[in-house]
Amino acid sequence: MRGIALRPLGERALRLPAACAAALSAVLLSVALGAAPSLAHAEVAAADPIDASMRACLARSDMSSTMGQVQCMDNARIGWKTALDNAWQQLQQKLPPARRKQWEKSQTSWQASRDAEKQLLAAVFATTHGTMYVLAEADMQLQPVRDRALVLRSAVANTGNTPAVRLRACRVDAQCEHAMFDLNRYYRRLQTKMPARSRPTLVRAQRAWNAYLNASTPLLDERGRIDIIGARVATLKRLSETAGNS
After folding, report:
1. Cα separation of 134 and 130, whole Å?
2. What does the alpha-carbon distance between residue 8 and residue 24 come to, in Å, rounded to a whole number?
3. Number of Cα atoms under 13 Å in the Cβ half of residue 15
4. What does the alpha-carbon distance between residue 113 and residue 208 come to, in Å, rounded to a whole number?
5. What's the pLDDT tens digit per position in 176-212?
6. CB neighbours of 199 closer than 8 A, spacing ≥ 6?
7. Which residue, of 2, 48, 170, 194, has the greatest Cβ tally within 10 A?
8. Which long-range contacts (CB under 8 A, 24 or more apart) does 139-143 make?
9. 3-state DSSP assignment of residue 44
């Protein structure tokens, strides 16, 4: 069965300055940012203040150390979390009650998935050694928050403009089926590379992600479902290629 071809990074990728490009090229430029649910296929302008501030921070000579670079990414993550919270408040005010309840379930499930994912990232990166993996972990903490903020911003902008769509079952949607095949393949690969004591962390994280997908499905069209699954494929692939490296 052939795997899903993930969309290229395009304009959503952060262009990092030369000061950190060498350390990050192997771990950041190869990442498919998996994309947010296609309720609107949110894109962010290259001049978004949060991204611009991060690029400027990464380029500063006094932030060129590993800890300085991590601090730049952490600051950006905090900025995107604030943007996420603001967009969420705006969205709640614009939604009719029934739709608000669906979004609340999706948001609660997303947060639970993020909490479980933090533990998984800690477990995987505990098996690695080297500066590039410290930076990679910071990036993997940042990107999902950024993606979710973009989704919510887009949902605010398109409230009332997205008609309800009845999804086909994944088993009769070839692209969805292929994506799930790849997801399971990388999940099994990661499971075999993780220490036995850490495997329950992976199981919990995947269950939380499954709950998030199920909670978000009523808000999605088929392309949006592929976006969420594709993002998970990219994450599991990256983690499976990272575990145990030094």
Report:
1. 7
2. 18
3. 8
4. 5
5. 999 999 999 999 999 999 999 999 999 999 999 999 9
6. 191
7. 194
8. 139/24, 139/27, 139/28, 139/31, 139/73, 140/235, 140/238, 141/73, 141/74, 141/77, 142/73, 142/74, 142/76, 142/77, 142/80, 143/31, 143/33
9. coil
